[in-house]
Structure formats: C-alpha cells, structure tokens
Design brief:
This protein is an all-alpha fold and about 1150 residues long. The chain is built from 34 helices and nine strands. Among the domains are: about 5-195, Up-down Bundle (Butyryl-CoA Dehydrogenase, subunit A, domain 3), CATH 1.20.140; about 325-465 and about 480-565; about 1075-1135. Keywords: Calcium, Coiled coil, Membrane, Transmembrane, Transmembrane helix.
Length: about 1150
C-alpha cells in the first residue's frame, strides 16, 4: 500500500463515517424506555415510537422532538414527562456534536486539499496533521455527547442506542488508519515521496544562454548552477542506493542538510521579493480607488441612460401600434387598387383586340379592288371619336407617368391617383365600347358595299361575253361611262387609302401608347410588389415586436395580478394581525386590571384577616388570663376546703371529681362562665382555621393569575415574532375548560376566538347600550345582590318577549336593545332608569375585570365589555334553558347569608340528576351533544365516580323502585349476572340514562368487587342502596349552578361553530376570491340564493376586509353568520324547544 492509496482510503472512510454519524444523530442516536415497555429511538430532530405489541411488531410512529416538547408543555400528565425533561440536554449535546462534525468535515476537506497540492507539486508533502485531528475530534465529541446526554435525574430512562455504537466503531476505524499511517507509511512517505516526486516546480529552474552567461528572465529566482542539479543528484543518489551501492549515511545526511539550507536561503529571498510585489499590488489597489468611484458614477449614468432608453422603447412601441393601424389601411387600399389595375389591364387587352379587328377589316376592304363611298358623316364621326380616344389615352398616359414619377415616395398620394386613374379608365372604357359599336356598324356597311360591287363586276363580265361584236359599237359610250365611274372609284379608293393610312398611323400610335401604358402599369406593379414586400417585412417586424409587446404586457399583467393578490394577502394578514394585537392588548389590559384588582382585594382581605387575627389573639390572651384567674380561684378554694392539719391524710383530701361537684354546687355562675369561655375559645380556633384556609386559597389564586399573565405575555411575544398565516387550517380539539369561567378561553386558541368574535351579530364598539351608558354621568356601582335580582328579572322578561316574537314569526331583538326598554318599564321614570342603567353597567364592568363567571355571561349577553358577544338566536336558546333551570332550581332560603349569596351569585343551583333530565329534554335529537354537555358541567370535579353514581343510581332511586327490579330489567338472558357489555348498554340504552361509555365502565368496576368482569345480584344489592343516593342527589356534591350549565352550552356551541368553519374552510382552495369565484362558491353551498343577495354579501365582506377580493376566511364567516347551506346552526335550534 503506497501513500496516495492510503490518503484516498482515509478521506473516503472519513466522509462515509460522517454521513453515518449525521444519520444516526438525527434519528437513532439514543434509545429510551418508558414504564409501559415502550421503546423509543431518539435523534436530534425526531423521535420514533416502537409498538411493544406482538400484533404490531413492524409499526413505528415518528414525530418531531419540538412537537413532543409542545405536548409536554400543554399536558402536565403526559406519560413521557420524564423523557421531556431529558430531551433539552440531549439536544444541547447534539448541537455540540454537530459543531464537532463540522470541524471534522473541515479537517477532511483540508486533507483533500493538501493531497491535491502534493500531487500538483505545489505543496511541501506533509500530510499527517489532519490524520491526527480527525479521530481526536471525533473522540472528544463522542465523550462530550455521552456525558451531556446521560446527565440528569432521569438518565436511567435513556441508554446509548445504535448510533453511539456506530460512532465508536467508526472512531476505532479512523484510529487504526491513523496508526497505520504513523507506524508503516510515514518513513516511506518521507523517503520515497520526496525522492521520486518533483521537489521543485519547473519555473524555479534557472535558464542559461549558449554563451554561458546567465540571462535572468521574469521567473528567475537567482539560483546557481549547483542548484540546478540538486534534484538530479538526489535522484542519482536514490538510484545508486536502490542498486545496492553502499553510501555513508551520515555524510549523505550532511550533504542533504547543506543543500536544504541553501535552498531555504533562496526561498527566503524569493519570499522577500514576493512581499515587495505584494506591497506594490497594495499601492496599485489604493491608487485604483478613484477609478472605482469613477466607474460607479459611470454606472449610475448608464442606469439613467438605460431608463431613458426604456422610455424611448415604450414610445416607439406606441408609434409602432399607430404605424400598424396605418399599414393595415394602406394594405386594404392596395388590395382595392390591385383589383382596379387588373380590370384596367383587361380593358386594355380588349381595346387592343378591337383595334386588331378593325385593322383586319380595313385590310380586307383595301384588297377588294373597288368599293363605293360611304357616308361622310360616319367618317367624320369616326375621325372625331378616334381623335378624342387618342387624346384621352394620351392624357391618361402622361398623367399616369407623371404621377408615378412624382408621387413614388408618398404611398397615400399614389393610391389617390390610382383611384382617379381608375375613374378615368372607366370613362375611357365606356367611350371605347361606344366606338367599337360604331366601328362594327361601319364594318357591316363596308361589307354590303363590297358585295354590291362584286355583283356588278360579275354582271359586267357576262355582258361582254354574250355580245362581243356589238360591243365594238358600244365601246365609246360604255367606255365613257366606265371611265367616268373608274375615275370616281379611283378617287374614292385614294381617299380610302388615305383613311386607311391614317388609321394605320393611329394604330401604331395606339400601340405605342398601349406599350407605354403597359410599361407604366408594369412599373406600378413592380412598385406595388416592392411596397408589398416592404409591407410584409414591416409586418413581420411589427408582428415580432407586437408579440414581444404582448408577451411583456402579459407578464406585466400577470405580475400585477400576482402583486395585487400578494398585496391583498399582506393587507389581510396585516389587518388580522392588527386585530389580534388589539385584542391581545385589550385582553392583557383586562387581565392586568383584573389581576391588580384581585391582588388589591386579596391584600385588603389579608390585612383584614390580620386585624381579625390580632383581635382574636387579644381575646385569646384575655381568655387565658381569665382561665389563670379562675385556676387561682380554684386553688384558693381547694386550699380552703382541704384539712388544715400538717399531715393530712388521704381520706380528708378532696378528689377532683368531688371538687368539681362541690364547685358546681357552691357557685354555678363560675361553671357557666368557664363553659362559655371554652365554647368561645373553640369557635375562635375554628374561625382562625377557616381564615387560614381562605388565605391559602387567595394566595393560590394570585399564583394562578400570575401564571396566566406570564403565558399571555409569552403568547404576545411569539405572535410578534411569528405572524399567524391566514391560509392555515385550524386543528380542532376539545381540551378542557375551567369549571365556572366562560371568560376563560383555555379550550380555544387565539384564532378560534377571533372566528367566534366575527360571528357576533353586533359589534361591541358600536353597541347602542354602551354609547348611551358612556354619555351618562358617573354613578356608584350597583350592589351585587341587587344586580343578580335585576338580571334574573331581565332574562325572564326577555324570554317571554322572545316567545311572543317567535309565535308572531318576528325576529327577536338583541338583549342590549331590550335592556333599555326593560329598565324604563321596571323603574317607571326615565331618569331613574338611566341612573340604574349606569350603575348596572359599572357593576358589570367590575365583574368582567374580575372574570366573575355570571358577570362575564351577562356582559356577553348584553355585548358589553367583552370581545365575544353571544348571537341573537343562540341567546334566545340560552334564555329558554335558564328559564327551564329556574323550574328545577332548589330554594335559596338558607340559614346564613354567606351561603345564600354564594348560590345566588351563580344564578342558583340544582341537582345534577335534574339537570341531566333538563339536558335530555333540550337535546332530545342530539344525544352525543347532550352527553358531552353533562360531562362538561362537572368535568373539573375531583369526585367523578361519585357524580357518575349519583347520575345513574339517583335517577333509579327517584322512581321509588328497588335495586332488584333494575337488575332483572338489565338481565335479559336471566343468568342472574351481568357482564360489562350488558350493564353498560343496559344503562345507556335500555334505561336511557345519558352517561358516557367511560363513566358506565367506571361504575361497573366499582360494583364488581371481585373484579371478575361479571356483576352478580349479590354484588349489585350489596353496593347499591337507593335510600342513600336518594338523599345524596340533593347534597352539596350533587349541586351544579346555572352559570355552569349555561357556560357548558356556550362552549359546545362555539366548538361546533369552529367545526363548521374548519369543514367549510377545507373546501376553499383559493388564496382569495373575486366576485365570480365568490358567486360560484356560494351557489355550491346554497343554490337557492339570488344574484343580488350574493352580490350584497360579497360587498359586505369586501368592505369589512378593505380589499378588492374576498379572503377564504371572510367567505367562511359570511356563510356561518348567515347560516347558509346548513352551516352555522349547530345542534341548538329553536324548533327543538317547541315541545319543551
């Protein structure tokens, strides 16, 4: 194995080891075990749960460590709480280990870089440093991670997993590679690698001229001749050594050292020269700083020029658009002119054909020999027509040529001229058509004359043949006649020849004119083709520019739309965050005010208790003094009654019993005083104990308030750092809610509370009742006892009015509007009503700050001082429920005012059995909702089993039947025993008692004394005593208040609204909805909606959000608020209360 192969192997092993370490660190570095034999693979970022069941051996659940820590923070009873305490330390060690791995990777890269430099001959050939660092760093990181990971009280739950084993195995491999390097390869590396590799770069070898003088070039380092052969001597010595030549090792080393010292001096000189060149470069860089500033100014100028060019391009695009419009008009005119030119050429061809026909006719006439004269008028007309045609052709030709030559540069003028020329050509064609008709008439006349002449010629020849002799005598007369006719014919023929000659001249002229016209037409056609080509190229350029412009416009529109959408989302998120921040600020302020008032009240209470304690201590000291005084009196009397002898016997001494009897007989007044003092002392001690418990409760309340305040502060800080995404769907859970606090929002997240706020029918800030109250003068708060009575009367009157409105099919009024009329009717006078209204609002504001359950309920009912008011429809339902509760509420006439006030400040109380029957009536169509409501009323009670027994056995006891009757009723198969399944189903479904499955199973486990899974008659009768439970159902443990019942209904209603919102939100896949998408989505939910109603909803939502489009959240709120498509109704409909 040579050195290079070892280096490659070492670097590859380190890279592979690092990848294994990263994988094991992230997923399976530690192994944890819980008390339930649950195996966990713990990494830095995730944790995997292995199922212990044999049926699910391959099942593995994986989650993030951050999610596990969040669950541990939320749930204090989490089974893996001990593991959560150790995880931060494990993560700290993991991050330290990541830093170590980064250092290790740096060492690996350094090794690779050093190896590359050694290969290229630029390095000194020393490579051992990183080989030493890699396993050392890995060992330190492993030890530190092991110490950090297993440190703590819960270390027994954690053991090193497969990741730690991998790490130690990898470290051993690296250590072995390092030892192999130092023990085997280092000596070979020093000798062989330096001898057989090139020790000096080529550019360091000096160059010599032929003359022997040294010529220093740009790469000359000032080496001598001896230095040139340094590498050769070393190679030669190595070769001699390899061939077996024995050389003195000491002298060889000395020579090598001398050579190296000289080389080192030369390298130092070279280093100095490099430093000088470095200084020169620095100076050059300092001198180039003004040039850089100049370049920056030039860049700014170029940017301004680019901006100007962009504007010019924009203007050029606009001009191109205008030019395109003009070119389209020119193209349209050219097509028209092309058609006209084709018509002109066809007319010219027809004219040439007519002229050829005329020439042919004239030639036939000329060859006929003799013909008669024809009408002079027709000849004159022909001459006149030919002359006019020639003149018009000449004029049109000259006009066409002159226009083609003068208006060639202007396209529009040429087209106008072509239009005019076309009109002239039309006139010429009409004249030529007329002339053709006249020529045809002349042709027909000439043919008739020619036929007549031929007939006469034939007749004359026949006469000469019949009478040749007689002709001799007749010759003179006929000759005279013939000569006369011949002279006339010759004259006419000459005239006719002249006419033909003239016509031929005209014909040649016409041909020349036609050729000129054809040439001009060809030029025009060429110009038109050239213009068409130019127009085509211009169109193509314009089309490409137009495509680029359209593409740019599309991109610009797309970017603008994306920006508008993004801007709308940002504005919506900003509005949501602003609303959330305002809500959090108001809530924090309310919590701070409530906490301050609670602390102040607790402080005052503590001071009052301290004063009472001092008073009772003084009373106690007085009682002690009185006791001492009476003891002294008792001793005195005892001394008087005892015998005075110096040695009294036992017989004459009085026993304590006799002394007490004697004391009671002699002076009863003192005995009574002692008894009174004893009772007073015991009462003082009891009261002191009660005060101590009250102080402890107040201190616990203060601690809880401080914790709530701290959590709210942390939530505000987290919201500032991490804004809530508008598009994220809410995870619906049903966590616990405080027992008597509707203002407590532990069962809802901040986003869910914002959803419930948005569903309100009235805005708290625009409440007319609040506006009226704020305008009144300040009044002292109303006494709380009077406030409870007034609000109970208000709710009863509102319930009556709501029933009347529903019977008349009118929408019930809001409680805030009804309150103003109620106060006037209750107190009679407007001024007194306003005064009491102001006092009532002051008291409700104080109760809301103190988070009083009943006070918070009234604030939500009236939409005062609370951000989540109750809607109108659900308030009608709640008022009906409270009216039914008043019917089952027990009498509040108790012996002590404190106990009486403790009940009325929560609206009265009733037995859980009676409340269960009330819920069964109200929620008769929704059993699952009713069971959750009943369980939610007492879910914070510590005696859950006792309450479950009261609900089941108390209900049975109210029927006045014996336990045996119910057992036989549940025992369907008459086996005198009930298994758990029969008992649970019998209670829940046969008897119709609304309890959950878990409660029924807990009752089974309580009655099953021997835990065999079967309930016998003996166990049932032995455990169940109806007389006891008949009394217990009206004891304090079985009592629930009205505010507990109402808050349970409110919690269930709000959670159902959240469920409807989440279902509806999952159906919307858009980031924002315009009007078309809004209408489409709304029609999918409620097809019966009309168009104007949908438009009205869209405008309302858009106005509330202050954006161009509507967000999916706003759409869902609009659907829930208007109860469209079955959403927003829940399980609490007013029609369910019709028969109650």
């Amino acid at each position: 194995m040579n050195f290079s192969y070892h280096a490659k192997l070492n670097i590859s092993a380190q890279i592979i080891c690092s990848l294994f370490l990263l994988y094991s660190l992230c997923y399976t570095f530690f192994t944890g075990y819980t008390t339930k034999d649950l195996s966990l693979d713990i990494g830095l970022f995730s944790i995997s749960f292995q199922s212990p069941s044999s049926e699910f051996q391959n099942l593995e659940l994986q989650t993030k460590i951050s999610s596990l820590l969040t669950v541990c923070d939320i749930n204090q009873d989490f089974p893996l709480k001990d593991l959560c305490l150790v995880l931060p330390k494990l993560q700290a060690g993991g991050y330290f280990y990541i830093i170590s791995l980064l250092v290790l990777q740096f060492c690996i890269l350094n090794s690779a870089f050093s190896l590359w430099w050694v290969y290229t001959g630029r390095g000194p050939g020393k490579y051992e440093s990183t080989n030493v660092l890699s396993p050392a760093i890995l060992m330190v990181s492993l030890v530190s991670y092991s110490i950090l990971g297993t440190f703590g009280s819960s270390a027994r739950l954690i053991s090193e997993g497969s990741g730690m084993v991998y790490c130690f195995f990898i470290d051993i491999v690296l250590v072995l590679l390092c030892l192999h390097y130092f023990l085997i390869l280092k000596r070979n590396f020093i000798t062989e690698f330096q001898l057989f590799e090139e020790p000096l770069p080529v550019e360091n070898i000096p160059k010599h001229s032929r003359s022997g003088t040294q010529s220093k070039g740009p790469y000359d380092t000032g080496q001598s001749e001896d230095d040139v052969g340094f590498g050769a001597r070393l190679r030669k010595k190595a070769m001699n050594q390899s061939q077996g030549v024995q050389v003195n090792e000491k002298s060889f080393c000395k020579e090598v050292i001398d050579d190296l010292s000289g080389e080192i001096e030369k390298l130092l000189d070279q280093k100095n020269r490099l430093e000088d060149s470095t200084n020169n470069l620095k100076k050059l860089m300092e001198s180039s700083i003004p040039d850089i500033a100049l370049y920056q100014s030039n860049i700014e100028i170029k940017n301004s020029e680019i901006k100007t060019l962009k504007d010019i391009i924009k203007n050029f695009k606009e001009k191109l658009i205008e030019k395109d419009i003009k070119l389209e008009e020119i193209e349209r005119d050219l097509s028209v002119n092309k058609a006209l030119a084709q018509a002109l050429s066809s007319n010219n061809a027809l004219l040439a054909k007519n002229l050829d026909e005329r020439d042919r006719v004239l030639e036939n006439i000329r060859n006929s020999g003799t013909f008669k004269s024809f009408d002079d008028a027709s000849e004159k007309d022909s001459k006149r027509d030919n002359q006019s045609a020639h003149d018009r052709y000449t004029e049109s030709t000259h006009a066409t040529v002159s226009i083609a030559q003068s208006d060639r540069e202007s396209m529009l003028d040429k087209l106008n001229y072509l239009n005019k020329a076309l009109e002239v050509q039309k006139d010429i064609n009409e004249q030529l058509h007329y002339k053709n008709k006249s020529l045809e008439e002349i042709k027909f006349k000439l043919e008739d004359n020619l036929n007549k002449l031929q007939k006469k010629q034939q007749g004359k020849s026949m006469i000469c043949a019949e009478d040749s002799e007689g002709s001799r005598f007749q010759i003179p007369s006929e000759d005279l006649y013939g000569n006369k006719k011949l002279s006339d014919s010759e004259k006419l023929l000459n005239d006719q020849r002249e006419i033909i000659k003239k016509l031929q001249d005209k014909k040649s002229q016409y041909k020349l004119q036609i050729q000129a016209l054809q040439k001009a037409l060809k030029d025009i056609t060429d110009d038109r083709d050239r213009l068409a080509d130019d127009l085509g190229s211009t169109k193509e350029n314009l089309r490409s520019i137009e495509d680029l412009y359209i593409e740019a416009c599309d991109k610009h529109i797309k970017y603008q739309e994306d920006w508008n959408i993004e801007k709308g989302d940002i504005l919506y998120s900003k509005n949501i965050l602003a609303r959330e921040l305002e809500t959090l600020k108001s809530r924090l302020k309310i919590q701070e005010d409530a906490m301050n008032s609670e602390i102040l009240e607790a402080t005052n209470q503590i001071e009052l208790l301290k004063d009472k304690l001092k008073y009772y201590e003084a009373e106690f000291e007085t009682a002690q003094n009185e006791i001492h005084r009476l003891k002294d009196l008792q001793d005195f009397l005892k001394n008087d009654l005892v015998d005075k002898s110096s040695d009294p016997s036992e017989d004459i001494r009085l026993s304590p019993q006799k002394f007490t009897q004697l004391l009671s007989l002699t002076d009863p007044r003192f005995d009574k005083t002692l008894k009174d003092l004893d009772k007073s002392f015991h009462s003082i001690i009891d009261e002191k104990e009660d005060l101590r418990k009250s102080c402890v409760e107040k201190e616990m309340a203060i601690l809880e308030l401080s914790e709530i305040n701290q959590k709210l502060s942390e939530q505000i800080y987290e919201l500032k750092l991490q804004p809530v995404s508008s598009e994220k769907a809410f995870v619906y859970e049903r966590p616990s809610m405080h027992s008597e606090s509707s203002a407590s929002s532990s069962y809802m997240s901040l986003q869910e509370m914002l959803i419930v706020e948005s569903l309100a029918d009235i805005d708290v800030r625009n409440n007319p009742l609040l506006d009226k109250v704020l305008k009144m003068k300040k009044e002292p708060p109303m006494i709380y006892s009077n406030l409870w009575k007034l609000m109970e009367s208000l709710m009863e009157e509102k319930n009556k009015v709501d029933k009347l409105d529903l019977a008349l099919k009118r929408r019930p009024r809001h409680a805030a509007e009804f309150t103003m009329d109620f106060m006037l009717s209750h107190f009679g006078l407007q001024s007194l009503a306003n005064k009491q209204l102001k006092a009532m609002s002051q008291s409700l504001e104080e109760l809301n700050k103190l988070n009083h359950p009943y006070g918070v309920f009234f604030c939500r009912l009236l939409a005062l001082y609370h951000s989540r008011p109750i809607s109108v429809d659900f308030s009608v339902f709640l008022l009906t429920v409270q009216h039914l509760f008043n019917g089952i509420s027990l009498s509040n006439k108790l012996s002590k005012f404190a106990d009486h006030y403790e009940i009325i400040q929560y609206g009265g109380h009733a037995s859980i059995v009676d409340v269960m029957e009330l819920v069964m009536k109200v929620c008769k169509n929704h059993r699952d909702v009713g069971e959750r409501l009943i369980l939610s009323i007492h879910k914070d009670s510590e005696q859950k089993l006792e309450i479950a027994l009261l609900k089941v056995l108390g209900t049975m006891a109210k029927t006045n039947k014996k336990p045996k009757h119910f057992f036989e009723l549940l025992d369907n198969n008459s086996t005198n025993s009930l298994d758990y399944h029969e008992f649970v189903d019998g209670i829940r479904y046969t008897l119709g008692i609304w309890i959950t499955q878990e409660e029924a199973e807990a009752i089974c486990a309580y009655i099953d004394t021997n835990s065999n899974g079967v309930i016998t008659m003996e166990e049932w009768v032995g455990k169940v005593d109806f007389s006891i439970y008949k009394e217990k159902i009206y004891t304090k443990i079985a009592m629930v208040t009205k505010v507990q019942v109402l808050n349970a209904f409110i919690e269930e209603y709000e959670l159902e609204m959240i469920e409807d919102y989440n279902k509806l939100r999952q159906t919307i896949k858009f980031r924002s909805l315009d009007q078309i998408e809004f209408e489409r989505a709304m029609m999918n939910i409620e097809p019966n909606l009309k168009d104007h109603e949908i438009v009205k909803l869209f405008e309302e939502v858009r106005k509330n959000e202050r954006t161009n489009n509507v967000s999916p959240e706003g759409f869902c709120i609009a659907v829930l608020k208007n109860k469209l498509g079955g959403y927003g109704i829940g399980s609490f409909e007013l029609k369910d209360l019709a028969g109650v």
